[in-house]
Amino acid sequence: xxxxxxxxxxxxxxHIGCRVSRWNPKMDTYIFETRNRIxxxxxxxxxxxxxxARHFLRELVGTGEDVLFVGTKPQIRSxxxxxxxxxxxxxxxxxxxxGTLTNYQVIGSRIAFLDEMExxxxxxEVDRMSSKVAARFRRDKRKVWRNLHGIRDMFRxxxxxxxxxxxxxxxxxxxxxxxxxxxxxxxxxxxxxxxCDLVIPANDDAIRSVALVLAELSEAVQEGLxxxxxxxxxxxxSREEGQSATSRPEPGGPPPTPRPRSGGARRPxxxxxxxxxxxxxxxxxxxxxxxxxxxxxxxxxAAPSAPAEDPAS
Length: 313
What we know:
39% of the residues lie in helices and 11% in strands. Helix 2 runs parallel beside helix 7 and helix 4 crosses helix 5. It is globular and about 65 Å long. The protein has nine helices and eight strands. The strands form two sheets. A five-stranded parallel beta sheet has the order 5-4-6-7-8, sandwiched between helices. A three-stranded antiparallel beta sheet has the order 1-3-2. The protein has 313 residues and is of the alpha/beta class.
């Protein structure tokens, strides 16, 4: 385990938060003080969050589960790639594709399409195309690869997610909450801690700060991988073993079963299922006239009575 001290966090700038005008009141418990109209993060809370996240990720990975790392800020993409190189876990560093978790069946088909494009390129079919068609093919391949290269070996839904700045990756955090996947978030003073299950209050803009936090989490994941190997649990990181386990949904197959939501059942909208006031009764109801057969079959008492004669007449 690395030497996680307050001095190391201060040297990395982990304690520097955002300006007072940008803060989120929900982060009040993680703020130590205000200096020069800039919030200072309580590093005791940061160390507590890192230790809790380390223990959680180590035990989770040790049981054979995977962790998805998400962070699309340009300045931290290199750190995310280092995290992937050290642990082999899936990651998203360019753009979060909507439906990566909630519509994983379609994402799996797009990954299969990327594999097919690479196979065509390896077989030399692109060289036999015209220059215009080949240029369009390579352009589409670059676009698909840029969006899916980090999760192309994710053959199942992750058991947890590590998100840097949930304020920026709010779509990823919402999809994880909808699928019941716990989230470990590196949250600055302008973020919303309610989007995360484990909060690590830290500066999520500085490269050294994010690198320090990721190094701690990377060590925890590596310890979990060693525990997984000692316990003899199958590793699905490799493409061959992942495809043999058929954990990736096939195109046209059933969608993955979502995990149970920790927040309980979805609440009905306010006012129940009844339409709001002022809507019901606006559509006029036109009476339907009876046919001659229905009038003949009607009982005598149901027939309309003749109007009474006016006694004055």
